[in-house]
Every structure is written in structure tokens, then in C-alpha cells.
Write a structure and sequence with these properties.
disordered N terminus, seven-stranded parallel β-sheet, binds nicotinamide-adenine-dinucleotide
């Protein structure tokens, strides 16, 4: 990308027709998202937390007073054009899942009940080896991983025909899979396709959905910390087929707080001795994360954030060797209403110690649902603007943002937001905002 200053706008195809949203994993997050979109369409509630629906963007100089809504500035699909489908290892329709999940109140759910009852998951690609706490009763019976990928491809094409969707986007909202490290089979598309045929154990179900999506030209976002699309074989396929991708792991709750507070401490050159984070949550996600192998995937994702923001190598006196601990405890009475505690040991002038305590009583799926919506709309925009491969400007939404091999991931929420908004300005040929501002004082 060039600087964008004075550049021509990037040609972007208009969002004509329906946009199909495909969700592997129709649990708490997916159903809270779908029910929420329908509630907003019917004027029953507001899309709080969604940048695409609520956000504005400043253009030009502060004195110009040009601050359009983001959804008027770039051509996003309208909520009215969204249609939904997906897969799960259980047969329950979206109403049943939302009711059991207990995230949304019954009064709201009843009003969107017929709509939710009309959306049922297709049989999943699933293997308990990758999510040990779950038992699948509604699963495909492909003999090889290759066969399973072809079945998902058929599902995608059937959904396209049945709904008449002009474009599709896929967002992984499935459970967190066991920890996998990149291996030979992930390095090239050829190895990966060979691995699919040979049932290679390092190819997890989430990768099979991702492969099928990219083959079908469908943008893919990964809401969980699994490797999934973050392997050279699939980033290569995304580039080959001109498909935008992003991930990993929705940035909600405790990590959102971390990436808000840590940049502030660093900005003021305050030191960090330790950061202890612990959570209790009682939804199915919590149950899955109770398995050490799934938790390990999550832990890796949560731990990397502080190192990248604080840069201990650049600031050894302030951040070298700080202690960072993250715990998740499955505690059923809490359901989706997670409680996250943080104890932060910092030090200031002359090394004097201080403490910060955070007690965040959050709602996991309420924080995640608007992220799914924004990712759907922005990935669709990216594809219509001819963007392909890793979309680093969507790092804003993730705990472990995907990034080019040559750079480290950007975790600071405020830099991420600036990157996102500057990308939108670039697309429209507007000046990028540098916050220099000297011109106001000439
Ligand atoms: N809610 C948040 O704040 C948040 C934040 C970051 C990441 N996440 C991640 O998002 C994902 C969804 O969270 P949730 O709270 O909705 O969990 P959930 O357990 O309610 O839903 C996950 C669903 O995925 C299904 N599933 C598992 N494997 C599958 C497969 N191979 N194919 C199809 N379906 C499959 C499960 O049956 C379940 O219905 C989890 O991986 C979670 O870690 C959530």
C-alpha cells in the first residue's frame, strides 16, 4: 500500500445481493450474534460494541469537521442482507442453543424465536481427538480428511444456491482445539493436500473448513486460538484464490483489558513486575478449556500479548523478566457471565511498587458477538476491494493477530484502531491521519 495521501480511491464493487454468513460452531457466540442481528434489524435492540454499526471516522483536518459514520464512508453490506448457516456437532436449532446457553433473556429470544428456529446446523467435520471434552452426535462420515473437505465444499455451494447469496464469509466460532505446532504438512499447499488424503494427524477439523472456504473463494476469520488458517499452506491458498483471511482468537474480556491498560503503562514508562490473571466461567467454552490440551492453545494466545506490547528487549529496566500468569477455571454456576480478576504489580519513580486490581464482570458472548459482525462486514468489504491474504488491519479484533513473517504482531488496541481506520481512509483515497497537527499552530 502507498501512503494514501492524495491517492485515488481503491475501486470497490458495490455490495449487491445477499451476504451469506457461514459459522462452523453454532454455540453461544454464534447464536448470540445471529439473534442480535435479527433483533437489531427489527429495531428491538442496538448494535452496541460494533464499530461498523456505531463507529465514526474523522477525515481531513480536525478543523474540517468531517466525521462520517464508518458504514456511510465505506460500502458495507446492510444487516438486512445477511443470511446465516453453519455446522455443529449437535443438531439443535439456533433457538434451542440460545435458550440453553442462557446468554440472552427469554423476552428478547421469544421475539426472534421463529427466525432462530429456522436455522439449524449441518453435520460437522469433527474428531474428538481435537476437542476432548465434546462428544459429536451430528457429524460427517468422510473416510478421509480429503473427503470431509469435499463435503464441506458441497455444503457451501448448496447454501449459496438455496439462499441465493451473492457472496459468502466464514467465521470459525467452534470450540478451541488442542494445541498444534506448525509442521511440514502445513508448509505448502501440496503437502497439505497430500496430508488431507493421508489423514495426517496435524490437520484439525477447523483447517478442513478453512481449506474448503478458501477453495470456494470464501473469506475466513478464525475466532479461536487454533492454528487453523495461520499456516503457510492456507495463506498461500488465500493469496492464490484472492481471498482475505484473518485471526486468531476474538479479543474480548480480560485480554481486551490487558491491551487497553498495558499500552498506557508503557506510554508513561511505568515498570511491570508481574501480571496475574485468573477467570471463572461456566459455559461450554469453559468446559472445553478445562481440558489441559485446549487450555494450552488458549494460554499461548493470551500470554503473548504483554511481551509484544511492552517490548522488554527495548526496555529491560522496566519489563525484563516480568511474571505473567493466566488461569481459566471452569465454574458452572457462572454460565456465560465470566469474572476475570487481574492483579498487576507495577513500579514507578525510583522503583517504588504499586498495585492495580481489576475485577471485570463481563459477558463473554455479548462481547464477542459484535466482533463477529464487524469481521463479516469488513472481510466482505476487503474482498470487494481486491484485498487478499492476511488482513493485518483487522488485528483490532484478535488476541493473536495473524501477521506477515517479517514483522511482529501488533497488540496495542490503539495502534490497531489507527491501522484499521487508516486502511479505510486509504481505500477511499483520503489522507491518512498522522496526529502531527503542527499546521494548526503555523
Ligand atoms: N466468547 C468469547 O468471549 C470468546 C473470546 C475469544 C474466543 N472465543 C472462542 O470462540 C469459540 C466459540 O465460543 P462459544 O462461547 O460460542 O463456545 P461454545 O462451546 O458455546 O460453542 C462452540 C460450538 O462449536 C461446536 N463445535 C466444536 N467442534 C466443532 C466442529 N469441528 N465443527 C462444528 N462445530 C463444532 C460445539 O459443539 C459448540 O456448539 C471458542 O473456541 C472460544 O474459545 C470466544
Amino acid at each position: 500500500m502507498s501512503s494514501g495521501n492524495g491517492d485515488q480511491p481503491v475501486p470497490i464493487a458495490e455490495p449487491k445481493g445477499k451476504l451469506g454468513v457461514l459459522l462452523p460452531g453454532m454455540g453461544a457466540v454464534a447464536t448470540t450474534f445471529i439473534a442480535g442481528v435479527e433483533a437489531v434489524r427489527r429495531g428491538l435492540a442496538a448494535p452496541i460494541g460494533s464499530l461498523t454499526q456505531m463507529g465514526t471516522i474523522r477525515l481531513g483536518k480536525r478543523s474540517d469537521k468531517r466525521v462520517p459514520a464508518i458504514r456511510e464512508f465505506v460500502p458495507l453490506a446492510s444487516l438486512d442482507d445477511l443470511v446465516f448457516g453453519g455446522w455443529d456437532i449437535r443438531k439443535d436449532d439456533c433457538y434451542q442453543v440460545a435458550l440453553n446457553g442462557g446468554v440472552l433473556e427469554s423476552q428478547l429470544l421469544q421475539q426472534v424465536r421463529p427466525f432462530l428456529e429456522g436455522i439449524s446446523p449441518l453435520p460437522a467435520v469433527f474428531d474428538q481427538h481435537y476437542v476432548r471434552r465434546l462428544v459429536g452426535t451430528h457429524v460427517k462420515k468422510g473416510k478421509t480428511k480429503w473427503e470431509s473437505s469435499q463435503m464441506v465444499l458441497e455444503d457451501i455451494e448448496r447454501f449459496r444456491t438455496q439462499t441465493g447469496a451473492a457472496r459468502l464469509v466464514m467465521v470459525w466460532c467452534g470450540s478451541t482445539e488442542i494445541f498444534l505446532q506448525p509442521q511440514e504438512v502445513h508448509q505448502t499447499l501440496e503437502n497439505f493436500e497430500c496430508g488431507l488424503r493421508e489423514n495426517h494427524p496435524a490437520i484439525a477439523p477447523s483447517m478442513i473448513y478453512a481449506y474448503a472456504a478458501l477453495k470456494a473463494g470464501v473469506p475466513y476469520a478464525n475466532g479461536a486460538p487454533n492454528l487453523t488458517v495461520d499456516i503457510p499452506a492456507l495463506t498461500e491458498l488465500a493469496r492464490q484464490n484472492s481471498v482475505p483471511i484473518c485471526g486468531k482468537d476474538f479479543k474480548t474480556g480480560q485480554t481486551l483489558m490487558k491491551t487497553i491498560i498495558a499500552p498506557g503503562l508503557k506510554a508513561r514508562m511505568l515498570g511491570l513486575a508481574g501480571w496475574y490473571s485468573t477467570n471463572i466461567l461456566g459455559n461450554r467454552d469453559g468446559e472445553v478449556l478445562d481440558d489441559p490440551e485446549s487450555f494450552r492453545t488458549k494460554e499461548e494466545s493470551k500470554l503473548s500479548v504483554l511481551e509484544h506490547i511492552l517490548q522488554p528487549d527495548l526496555y529491560p529496566q522496566l519489563y525484563k523478566g516480568f511474571c505473567h500468569v493466566v488461569r481459566i477455571n471452569y465454574y458452572p454456576p457462572r454460565g456465560d457471565n465470566k469474572e476475570g480478576w487481574d492483579n498487576i504489580d507495577i513500579f514507578g519513580w525510583l522503583g517504588y511498587p504499586m498495585q492495580i486490581k481489576i475485577d471485570f464482570l463481563c459477558r463473554d458472548s455479548i462481547l464477542a458477538a459484535p466482533i463477529v459482525l464487524d469481521l463479516v462486514l469488513f472481510l466482505d468489504l476487503a474482498q470487494r476491494a481486491g484485498m487478499r491474504g492476511i488482513q493485518e488491519w483487522l488485528s483490532f479484533y484478535f488476541k493473536s493477530p495473524m501477521h506477515a513473517p517479517a514483522v511482529y504482531p501488533e497488540h496495542d488496541l490503539f495502534i490497531q484502531l489507527m491501522k484499521l481506520k487508516n486502511t479505510l481512509r486509504y481505500l477511499r483515497g483520503e489522507d491518512l491521519i498522522t496526529h502531527l497537527g503542527l499546521e494548526y499552530y503555523d
